[in-house]
Amino acid sequence: xxxxxxxxxxxDRGTIAVSGTRDTQRVPHIHYVSGWDVEPDHQTIRCTINxxxxxxxxxxxxxxxxxxxxxxxxxxxxxxxxKGNYAGTAxxxxxxxxxxxxMKDRFxxxxxxxxxxxxxxxxxxxxxxxxxVRFSVREIFLQxxxxxxxxxxxxxxxx
Length: 159
What we know:
Layout: H1 4-13, E1 16-22, E2 28-38, E3 44-49, H2 57-64, E4 66-72, E5 79-90, H3 94-115, H4 119-123, E6 131-142, E7 152-154
Antiparallel strand pairs: 1-2, 1-4, 2-3, 3-6, 4-5, 5-6, 6-7
């Protein structure tokens, strides 16, 4: 189960995200994410991805079933990487399109505040979703720049 502070970050503060997979030769691939939402079980995340970023995605997931999502809050650079197991794909539904819109709006506001770029130009950067990748979160790492970067926050590291 994703801890409450991470759920709050994903729902209210995360601004931009990328996902990662690796192929049969262990070559990493990045897929830009156009939105995300946590399912009611608080363990499974739905990531929406535009067709432009699908190369190697499904073949990598079918090969090894590993998926990662890295979410950052623009401005503070608060960042978390969630790693887990592939749980399937789906066509985007109304809730996925709403998650996409929330991400576009947050992204537009954040970039506008920092750089003065009009929000509508910023929102155009986040392309609409064509596929949903579902994954079950296994572990979460802090990726915020600083001394704690790379530290596993869930499940807690043993000391």
